[in-house]
Write the structure tokens for this entry.
Amino acid sequence: MIRVLVADDQAMVRAGFAALLAAQPDLEVVGEAENGAEAVRLAAAEQPDVVLMDVRMPVLDGIAATRQVLAENPGTRVVVLTTFDVDDYVLDAIRAGASGFLLKDAPPDDLVAAVRIVARGDALLAPSVTRRLIERLAVGPAQQPGSSSALPELTQREREVLVEVARGRSNQEIAAALVIAEQTVKTHVSRVLGKLGLRDRAQAVVAAYESGLVVAGD
């Protein structure tokens, strides 16, 4: 059973999300928070597997709440929800440790799927958000693409795997592209995350672009 906490300052939205999730046989809603501070308190008390976190909330905003929840509860995952497809929110949410970023107008099935995806340790970004994130990162200062000095902690093979992750490819697709076993890809991804101190693939995408290892259109 996946334990979920819902945090949103709009009562009707919060209740709607909670009802949708509670109707799923593998999901249990363990709490509802109306602001970021309450989300932090409930997360500490209930130890949820996943928190659905609204960005704009009173007392403590969703980004700050995400950072605090994850600092206090390393095993919890956060999916950030917002009505705004805004670049800064995406970057801030990922840097705070969020494993997913989903727009509130996404279909109900997408919301349920998002909870399951991050609960099993994967990252999730809505396609439109991923595209805008890459565009935003592409205009920032960076090293020369593919430079051997980019991310020196990584081996050549680990850099190759990170490039494929940043392009949005699955483990199966990376295995086919690099002609290696899928389990080997998983091992390399795990080592990349460990060496760079990253939480998941979402943060790995940011690291790849910000280091200059990958550039838009590469």
Residues 70 and 205 are 20 Å apart (CA to CA). The longest helix spans residues 182-196. The mean pLDDT is 85. The two ends are 41 Å apart (CA to CA).
